[in-house]
Design goal:
With 298 residues, the chain is α/β, with parallel strands linked by helices. The chain has a single domain, classed as Histone deacetylase domain (Arginase, Chain A, 3-Layer(aba) Sandwich). It is built from 10 helices and 8 strands. The chain has an 8-stranded parallel β-sheet, with helices on both faces. Helix 8 runs parallel beside helix 9 and helix 9 runs parallel beside helix 10. The longest helix is centred in the N-terminal third of the chain and has 24 residues.
């Protein structure tokens, strides 16, 4: 199972910033320590070329990021101060997802220990998302003819508004978001299928909904699934409003990955959100996704 990572690219943040940037390194180290991933299966993510970012992002936005002229309000919407390192790290995050997509088509599964940046719009970032790696990877795969039918299955606790805004209506795509209805973003951009769950929804309700959602995905007959496997649906998450247990989260991943394995649909794993305290809970949840992927796919 080939995995890409980008945590060595520095992400400079002010002291006390609430984004858990260290989780990416901690997840990679745990995967190696437990033997879930071998060292030779890990590759440092390449920086996505600017021309590939132009497939989904506007020239003005890319120019502002490239040359450091992004206005202060735009930086606040993203949640990160602009820096050259931020741009490099964000390009690596997209590069990892695109390379994972190529390998998933060959091997059946692949992953990026970053990505899932579903709040980035064509003309600006938001919600800790600078570029939309899901939209870039999907656009690249369809344009190159690697697949004709691709599903984006977004199970982050936050609705995938940026992905929907960029990709909605494009031929060959099925966009799905299962999220907390009363959580960020407060203006939802419609996907092809949105399920907004009430505050406090737990394992049983969530899994019942997911079974129905997977039947709709199957009806679409995708040739590949981009899986935004955010773990901020956990009860302990600071920025979530749902109440899944760690066992419920494991059942979620088993449902999705088991479905993909049985139907021989290649799947790309992206990390998505996770903001629990202590951070060890978030790390364990992300590691658990890969533990299950290894168990099911070998």
């Amino acid at each position: 199972m080939r995995i890409w990572y980008s945590d060595p690219y520095r992400l400079p943040l002010p002291p006390g910033h609430r984004f858990p940037a260290e989780k990416y390194r901690l997840v990679r180290e745990r995967l190696l320590a437990e033997g879930i991933i071998r060292e030779d299966e890990l590759t440092l993510a390449p920086l996505i070329p600017w021309e590939d970012l132009e497939r989904v992002h506007t020239p003005n936005y890319l120019q502002a990021l490239r040359f450091g002229t992004l206005p202060e309000p735009a930086q606040r919407r993203i949640g990160f101060p602009w820096s050259p390192e931020l741009v490099i790290r964000s390009r690596a995050s997209v590069g990892g997802t695109c390379r994972a997509l190529e390998m998933a088509l060959r091997d059946g599964i692949s992953g990026n220990l970053a990505g899932g940046t579903h709040h980035a719009f064509a003309d600006g970032g938001a919600g800790f998302c600078v570029f939309n790696d899901l939209a870039v990877a999907a656009s690249l795969a369809l344009a190159a003819g690697w697949v004709r039918r691709l599903a984006v299955l977004d199970l982050d606790v936050h609705q995938g508004d940026g992905t929907a805004a960029i990709l909605r209506g494009r031929k060959g795509l099925f966009l799905v978001s299962v999220h907390a209805q009363r959580n960020y973003p407060f203006h939802k951009v419609p996907s092809d299928l949105d399920v907004g769950l009430p505050d406090g929804a737990g394992d049983e309700d969530y899994l019942e909904v997911l079974r129905v959602v997977l039947r709709e995905v199957e009806r679409f007959r995708p040739e590949l699934v981009l899986y935004q496997a955010g773990v901020d649906v956990l009860r302990a998450d600071r920025l979530g409003r749902l109440a899944l247990s760690m066992d419920g989260l494991a059942a979620r991943d088993r449902l999705v990955l088991g479905w993909a394995r049985r139907r021989k649909v290649p799947v790309v794993l992206t990390l998505g959100g996770g903001y629990a305290r202590p951070i060890a809970l978030t790390v364990e949840a992300h590691v658990q996704t890969y533990r299950i992927a290894r168990e099911l796919f070998g």
